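Researcher: Following up on the earlier apo prediction. This time include the ligand. It's NAP, with the SMILES given after the sequence.
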Amino acid sequence: MLISFRLLQQNLSNQNSDTGTARLTAILETELALFCERVAGKVVAITGASSGIGEYLAYEYARRGACLALAARREERLQAVADKAQLLGSPDVIFIPTDVSKVEDCERFINKAVNHFGQLDHLVNNAGIIRIDMFEDCKQISDLVTLMNTNFWGSVHATRFAIPHLRKSKGRIVGISSIAGWCSLPRMSFYCASKAALTSFYETLRAEFGSDIGITIVTPGAVESEMSQGDFITKAKMDFVPAESTEMCAKAIVDSACRGDRFLVEPSWTRITFLLKVLCPELLEWHSHWAFVAKTSKKSN
Ligand SMILES: NC(=O)c1ccc[n+]([C@@H]2O[C@H](COP(=O)([O-])OP(=O)(O)OC[C@H]3O[C@@H](n4cnc5c(N)ncnc54)[C@H](OP(=O)(O)O)[C@@H]3O)[C@@H](O)[C@H]2O)c1
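Model: Understood. Below is the ligand-bound prediction.
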């Protein structure tokens, strides 16, 4: 029903807008808003909230009046995000310095959030790191364990401690995976593997939970953040890929979670890579090799 509302709405706004159309669009927008979850007064826990997508997710939820529990390792950054989120409209914000790669930190984060607010409605598993190197150049495979512990296990542990509370509230998990989970990107083998594992983990949980806990799996393409600077540009040669603004991405994610979507591919044009993966994976692999390996090594010779 929501999909047909949205399609109808898109068709209407594509037409020349006379007053009748404008009125109908307004009615449909109101209908749409009625079907969307309102998060005012609800409790949202976000990992990786000290910068980038997590920071802007905090602001987006704050604008909608949600109470926030924020986690990351950099305490002073969390303090600044918490202050701004309160100014933007959140009734109450707490922050808990947390290293999601440590099980005990994940448990403490969820417990502190629930002890403080008495409930948990959304858990946003967003914390993540990237490592950029050709697999053959990775001297110590054990160095990559930190990446898996953060991107995959960090989300698994936070989810495990949050489940009883989310069951009570019939809440939602928002899992920030990546387009890298299906689109093979050279120099990011472990990052891609961690995101593919995450997507598969959430899909399996969805089958286990039924309608008890909602799950929105988000697969962003390139988004402006600390992660998409530095090595991402210089080593991964991703400079020609257009990055979406962090604010737009965060708004799309919260809209999607509130609509109760199962998946969000953001920005939407990156869906083409999913189609290519299904219909002609060889073409996608050839392009990845040509654009990120062959072309760049020719340039440096
Ligand atoms: N930017 C993109 O193009 C893009 C594309 C697809 C998916 N993503 C995903 O989006 C998510 C957010 O990344 P971003 O782009 O916003 O990058 P970012 O600005 O680097 O943010 C990463 C966040 O994760 C936190 N973090 C890292 N390790 C942590 C740990 N061990 N414990 C707790 N928090 C930790 C960081 O905070 P501290 O350093 O303070 O701990 C920071 O708040 C990641 O999962 C990433 O994989 C990003």
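Model: Residues 47-54, 72-74, 77, 98-101, 126-129, 150, 176, 178, 220, 222-223, 225-228 surround NAP (CB under 6 Å).
Researcher: Noted. I'll compare it with the apo version next.
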